[in-house]
Specification:
260 residues, mainly beta, Lipocalin, 8-stranded antiparallel sheet, 8% helix
């Protein structure tokens, strides 16, 4: 074998080793194996929650890219809003979901233990990215399950121009209200009883249909305070004509689905 053949054989051997090497790599330029990637839990999720308030409740959640969560519970027969939840979550070991937050009953309803508000812990959960999200939740003295599927409305995107409008058909604990979102995302409004709303809608990631919402409630007695949460647009009579949102303090949730 001449020098040229020897060089070719060595080069071929190195190429074969590089192509099949594993970490740790003994050769310069050997590509490392990719690290396992956790599934994304972000999205809009629709499904059922067993035993929070009724035997079975419908649930609709938005999980923002920040891993903040806001959920609305509705009666499966009447579609009435009966409760809400807020939480923060994390994903570990590829698809395992955990988190903590607070569960709230809407006015006129109570949680399983008779309370209006309770801490919640997501003790187990599995996510299949853009497919399914299933959770086991401890709250209000019981362990319940939540089973949901992904709603592609999350990929609609967010824009202040989309939500800028006058919104009616909204109430604060039974007090008829309305509010305006202006072109800059500023919220202003007032209820029939004189509760004053000021706040802002925030775009955190324009790629997805999830809005940050902050409300300051004044002249509203025991409901006064600073509320924070999430919102998303959905459709009733036209595209994006409903702004579903939930904002929270440690003891109170204000949930609405006002229409433009």
């Amino acid at each position: 074998m001449d020098r040229t053949d020897s060089f070719s054989a060595v080069a071929l051997l190195v190429m074969v080793v590089l192509a099949g090497c594993d970490e740790p790599c003994p050769f310069i330029g050997c590509p490392p194996l990719p690290d396992p990637m956790n599934q994304s839990v972000s999205g809009v999720w629709n499904g059922q929650a067993v035993g929070f308030i009724n035997t079975t409740d419908d649930i609709r959640c938005v999980v923002a890219e920040t891993l903040e969560v806001a959920c609305v519970l509705t009666d499966p027969v009447t579609d009435e809003i009966i409760g809400a939840a807020q939480a923060t979550v994390q994903v570990t070991n590829i698809d395992q979901v955990s988190g903590t937050g607070t569960l709230y009953a809407a006015p006129g309803f109570v949680l399983n233990d008779g309370s209006d508000v309770a801490a919640l812990t997501i003790t187990g959960g599995t996510v299949s990215q853009r497919n399914t999200l299933d959770l086991t939740v401890d709250a209000a003295g019981t362990t319940t399950t939540v089973s949901t599927t992904y709603d592609a409305i999350y990929e609609r995107g967010s824009d202040l121009a989309t939500v800028a409008a006058v919104y009616t058909t909204f109430d604060i604990f039974g007090d008829t209200s309305s509010f305006v979102i202006d072109a800059n995302g500023a919220i202003s409004g007032q209820s029939a009883a004189g509760c004053v709303l000021d706040g802002v809608v925030i775009i955190s990631d324009a790629t997805f249909n999830a809005y940050g919402v902050a409300l300051d409630l004044t002249s509203c007695g025991g409901l006064d305070g600073e509320y924070n949460g999430l919102g998303l647009t959905q459709d009733m009579n036209a595209t994006d004509d409903v702004f579903l949102f939930g904002v929270f303090t440690s003891q109170t949730a204000i949930i609405g689905a006002p229409v433009k």
